[in-house]
Amino acid sequence: MKLGALEAGGTKMVCAIGDESGKIFEQISIPTTKPEETMPPIIEYFKDKDIEALGVACFGPVDLDKSSDTYGYITSTPKIPWQNYDIVGTLKEALGCPVGFDTDVNGSLLGEATYGQAKGLTDAVYFTIGTGVGAGVMTNGKMLHGMMHPEFGHIRLVVRDDDPYKEGHCPFHGACLEGMAAGPAIEARWGAKGKELADRDEVWDLEAYYIAQACATSVFVLSPQMIILGGGVMHQEQLFPLVRKYTKELIAGYIKTKQMEDLEHYIVPASLNDDQGIMGCLKLALDAKNE
Ligand code: ADP
Ligand code: ZN
């Protein structure tokens, strides 16, 4: 079965063709500028490919409520040209096939839950720590949407005394998770990009302390069977042992499960070579086709 996948990110749009087994046959990338520029080449790419359905995992906030007049829209994004943009409607009309839709982070989690290391689990969380911070949440085998979708990147954190950038970087909340731990916050705090700070221990110790607060919160609130950490910042692999250490400290022995005894297999990096997002889109397409 030929399926289309669109991972709609704030910097680039990845378009791919694949099948229901998660196999990707081909893919291209188009820069995200404004809809008038970005959408025509996307439509052009999919148009003659004879796909049976398309799955879209999109930066947000987005409207996932099928009973809403603005279902399938990108809503209050800070990326002005995309505010209130009907991405699903536009693609459906142009391609004439079913279109599945979810957030970018739910897409990545869906990829891991269908084809990757979270296969067989019913409850898991996928954090992406990149230009922003977001989390996809699966509960009882379903992606959590609720009223809208979770915005885990904007939880408040306990700010550490030795943080030279206590005010944080989020225009809405200052010192929320995204405001403290996303790539731009690291850059604002230390005056250089994360990549250039690889050997500065204090950078990653503080970063891990903040990410661990999100991990501990997700353990207490959602009881996931696995926490997956992805996104550009998590390429700093030294973060993983530090995040596990601080998460353990924050849980403070209160939760006693086999997973808590084995955090190395509980708080883990993404497993699909950065294809988890696009593979999640294939699953969204498959589900849309079968709906
Ligand atoms: P996006 O979130 O835009 O989809 P990424 O997940 O790649 O893309 O995140 C980009 C952010 O991650 C940037 O702020 C960048 O500085 C940071 N980043 C990318 N690679 C690394 C790295 N190897 N080490 C630390 N930070 C990184
Ligand atoms: Zn915020």
Ligand inventory = adenosine-5'-diphosphate, zinc ion
Strand line-up across the major sheet? 3-2-1-4-7
> What structural class is derived from the secondary structure elements?
alpha/beta
Count every beta strand, where a strand is a DSSP E run of 2 or more residues. Answer: 12
Q: Give the termini separation.
A: 15 Å
The coarse overall form would be globular
Rounded mean pLDDT score: 97
Number of domains: 2
Number of helices: 8
**Rg result:** 19 Å
Q: Determine the fraction of residues in helical runs and give it as a percent range.
A: 25-40%
Q: Tell me the series of helices and strands, N- to C-terminal.
A: EEEHEEEHEHEEEHHHEHEH
Q: What do these coordinates show?
A:
The mean pLDDT is 97. The two termini are 15 Å apart. A hairpin with a 3-residue loop joins strand 1 and strand 2. This protein has a five-stranded mixed sheet with strand order 3-2-1-4-7. Strands 10-9-8-11-12 form a five-stranded mixed sheet, with helices on both faces. A two-stranded antiparallel ribbon has the order 5-6. It has helices spanning 35-47, 87-95, 104-115, 177-181, 183-190, 201-222, 239-251, 276-290, and strands at 3-8, 12-18, 24-31, 53-58, 73-74, 85-86, 99-103, 124-129, 133-139, 142-143, 226-230, 267-269. It has two domains: 3-104 and 274-290, ATPase, nucleotide binding domain (Nucleotidyltransferase, domain 5, 2-Layer Sandwich); 117-269, 2-Layer Sandwich (Nucleotidyltransferase, domain 5), CATH 3.30.420. Helix 6 (201-222) packs across helix 7. The protein is globular, with a radius of gyration of 19 Å. With 291 residues, the protein is α/β, with parallel strands linked by helices. It is built from eight helices and twelve strands. The structure holds adenosine-5'-diphosphate (ADP) and zinc ion. Residues 154, 170, 172-173, 176, 178-179 line the site of zinc ion.
